[in-house]
Write a structure and sequence with these properties.
With about 300 residues, the protein is of the alpha+beta class. The protein has five helices and 14 strands. It has two domains: about 5-155, Nuclear Transport Factor 2, Chain: A, CATH 3.10.450.50; about 180-305, Beta Barrel (Lipocalin), CATH 2.40.128.
Length: about 300
């Protein structure tokens, strides 16, 4: 790797960590700035104006987030100016390791090439903001918008898994989760399938994921509080499963950037997949959930094997 490539990779990583640190720096204490809406004024939301507001907001937000030298004050000012005070307070109280506004950890201004905003059928103040993030995969954020005396603001992120359950209700506190309780257990979303299953096996060193038709990988785990386990890639892959041709660049996958998250849901586990982070390209790769390519989040149950 030459010096120019090293420098480009460095800038891309700086960009990622700057956005994460800017976002997490806002979580240290509830933010006293931002706009407050005394009552959700849905009746006065004009669809055309709301769509224009969201396009302008996401354009400025993504452009600022993508800068290698993203300035935290500017970055947070854009957020605080366009979210209601209630939403800012809710997000600041959550210990999130991603940016809920873009539903990810890293950002790319090329997303703006596919930026699309449309209203939710039958919902006057609900809008979907969508863009292609990688591998022709669309990311869509469902937002509630209010009109505060002509000032349009984002009031809620309706499809964020840390704010709402799948049925849209406000999320309640998760059950407790401890790494020691997972030791020497196997979990899958298809425990009782007759064919070879996708599964994860936990041990004292971390967790081994086996996807027989795709790949197998080792990971390290980090417990955050008593409700979240962060998952990190650990090179090399499990060699009993041949590495696919499209993963031969696995040496470039970061081992210190989150690839997945595990949370307890009753006696099951919620597994959220983000994908590997390629340090050379500065992009997320293989962002489709290996347990189920059609779902970003899957529910795993304990298997008797």
């Amino acid at each position: 790797m030459n010096m120019k490539t090293n420098f480009v990779s460095y800038l891309l990583l700086v960009s990622l960590f700057t956005v994460q640190s800017c976002w997490q720096s806002s979580n240290k204490k509830p933010n006293s700035t931002g706009n407050e809406v005394s009552a959700t004024n849905v009746a006065n939301v004009d669809e055309e104006k709301a769509i224009q507001f969201l396009k302008e907001f996401y354009t400025s937000y993504i452009l600022e987030s993508d800068k290698p030298d993203a300035y935290c004050k500017t970055f947070l000012n854009i957020r605080n100016k366009n979210l209601t005070k209630n939403l800012i307070k809710t997000l600041d109280e959550l210990d999130l390791d991603y940016d809920p506004i873009i539903q990810g950890q890293d950002c790319d201004k090329s997303w703006l090439n596919t930026l699309d905003v449309n209203s939710e059928a039958g919902q006057k103040n609900i809008f979907n903001v969508c863009f292609v993030v990688s591998d022709n995969q669309w990311e869509c954020i469902k937002l509630s918008v209010v009109n505060d005396n002509g000032n349009y603001l984002i009031d809620d992120i309706l499809n964020d898994i840390n704010l709402h359950n799948d049925n849209g209700s406000v999320k309640q506190q998760s059950n407790r989760l401890n790494l020691d309780d997972l030791n020497m257990t196997t979990w899958s979303n298809e425990c009782y399938s007759d064919s070879a299953i996708n599964y994860v096996y936990f041990n004292v060193a971390g967790a081994s994921f086996t996807f027989p038709l795709h790949f197998g990988m080792r990971t390290t785990l980090k417990q955050v509080g008593d409700t979240v386990i962060k998952v990190y890639f650990s090179y090399p892959f499990i060699l009993r499963i041949p590495i696919p041709d499209n993963m031969q660049d696995c040496r470039d996958y970061a081992e210190n950037i989150l690839i997945a998250k595990i949370e307890p849901i009753g006696d099951k586990l919620k597994f959220t997949w983000y994908g590997f982070y390629n340090t050379k390209t500065g992009k997320r790769v293989h962002t489709k959930n290996p347990f189920d390519a059609n779902q970003k989040t899957v529910i795993l149950e304990k298997c008797n094997r």
